[in-house]
Amino acid sequence: MFNRRKFLRASAATGLGVAASGLAMPALSQGRRIKLGYVSPQTGPLAGFAESDAYNIAAFIEQTGDTFEVIVKDSQSNPNRAAEVAKDLILEDEVNLMLVASTPETTNPVAGVCEGEGIPCISTVAPWQPWFIGQQGNPRDPGSWRPFDYAFHYFWGMEDVIDVFTAMWNQLDTNKSVGGLFPNDADGNAWADDDTGLRPGLKAAGYDLTNPGSFQNLSDDFTAQINAFKGASADIVTGVLIPPDFTTFWNQMRQQGVHPKAVTVAKALLFPQSVETLGAAGHNLSSEVWWTPSHPFASSLTGQSSAALAEGFTAASGRPWTQPIGFVHSLFEVAADVMGRVDDPGDGDAVAEAVAATDLDTVVGKVAWNGQGVPDFAARNVCKTQLTGGQWRMRDDGGYDLVIVENGAAPDIPTGGTMEALS
């Protein structure tokens, strides 16, 4: 974990000291620091999402001084645990604002608890459909869906990932037969949904999806899925699954001599360490890309560019940059901005309305709950962010670089190459 001293040492070593941004800081409430709760999967199979948490929180505290207290809880990659620690943060720690990141298994239970308790909550790093629809009383009945009073979310949606994935595949010569990997969890069920998941968008783009059925996380046998993909002559494999499951699947797929032209998988292929464990078998695997050091944005909190933020993390940790760095940092940007616009941090209704009124340029781009690009039913609670697509390319030293190969919906984010077929 990074403490304040370690963060400052890394900043000094790289010349990346934080700069005052002119962001309004809230007045202390009766001499007390404003309490922020933060929940993320710091252990368990989703722990890669939380790798930059301590670094980002150290930067936030360094910039804001004594204004905020951040109380961090580990969901342990377990939805029930996420709900439990959210309750603790509300009832025992009496936080003023809840922040939560990384997959519906974490964001949804925390947001649900906050909505029930009347505590404002800001979440990110989960597609908006699993977040919004997954929390409705009847996800199968759109007519019953209702907006939330206290829960707010920003990230991309299924429509965006479909556009990015198909644009990448369109760069290759394939039979447009796609095999899908969908676990029995909030993400997998949302992506596999025949009405609101991948299938309708893929069909509209001319692709045929084979879904052999859901499986449990941490499975050790993907024979059924591999046989189904063989039967469909699938040139493409896609889906959304945790890193250990993809490693098991990919090893078994290769052992059986099955060689698709493209493997584009969400969640599992986000992190360099997940690809590095595959050795040469990770070359040209592809995924969605939501943030990189080349993104042309800067922090409203520290003034750092995306590149500087990533460089600072690497200097402090010795680890490569990862996509969640930008989004976790942005959560605290938004929190500081929101609390700088309220008179009483303890007034949950006022804080919720301040969240809804946010219009902030962050290190991941614009965050504003203005309804742009979002269906009316989710417009109050969902803000969309940009999405691109990339491939992992193996370097001579055995490490990997993530190369942007598709930016049609985000032309301000530069590409570094074009899509290549798996060998």
Q: What would the keywords be for this entry?
A:
6-stranded parallel β-sheet; 14 helices; Rossmann fold; 18% strand; alpha/beta; 4-stranded parallel β-sheet; 2 domains; 423 residues
The CATH architecture of the largest domain comes to 3-Layer(aba) Sandwich
Assign the CATH superfamily of the largest domain: Response regulator
Number of helices: 14
CATH class of the largest domain: Alpha Beta
User: Quick check: average pLDDT?
Assistant: 92
Q: Going across the major beta sheet, what is the strand order?
A: 2-1-3-4-5-13
Rg over CA atoms: 21 Å
- Count of separate structural domains: 2
Helix content: 25-40%
User: H/E element string?
Assistant: HEHEHEHEHEHEHHEHEHEHEHHHEEEEE
Total number of β-strand segments? 15
What fold name goes in the CATH topology slot of the largest domain? Rossmann fold
